[in-house]
């Protein structure tokens, strides 16, 4: 199995409803996103996928999140907490539709801060 990963960052605001019922103050993060793609066999080119192409696809996927301003205002997160976990799953599901066959999207990891991250893999 061969795998590549790329990282990008984007800026977006969010706020969460806490378990005690309190609502966080809106705050901004420089979200970091990593996407990992795998393949069983390397093609004749010798690479899993062009890094630049994967970065382009990942940027296209997160672009609506970065221009939205506040993630809570997006329909996808309108009635649910836009947590790092849900963001990772959302990005995975959108990016999955863009990855060419026979490649597989292995996982998406989202960092909310330098030390806090969530990963989604099916």
Could you say which overall geometry the principal axes of the C-alpha atoms support? elongated
What class would the helix/strand composition place it in? alpha+beta
Strand percentage:
25-35%
Q: What is the helix fraction of residues, given as a range?
A: 10-25%
Lateral strand order in the biggest sheet: 1-2-3-4
Model regions low in confidence, pLDDT < 50 over at least 5 residues: none
Computed over alpha carbons, the radius of gyration is 15 Å
Mean pLDDT: 95
Pattern of helices and strands: EEHHEE
Q: What kind of sheet is the major sheet? A: 4 strands, antiparallel
Number of strands: 4
Distance from first to last alpha carbon: 17 Å
Helical stretch tally? 2
Describe the structure.
- This protein has 122 residues and is α+β, with helices and mostly antiparallel strands.
- It is built from two helices and four strands, in the order E-E-H-H-E-E.
- It has helices spanning 51-67, 84-96; strands at 2-14, 27-39, 104-113, 116-120.
- Strands 1-2-3-4 form a four-stranded antiparallel sheet, covered by helices on one side.
- A hairpin with a 2-residue loop joins strand 3 (104-113) and strand 4 (116-120).
- The relative contact order is 0.22.
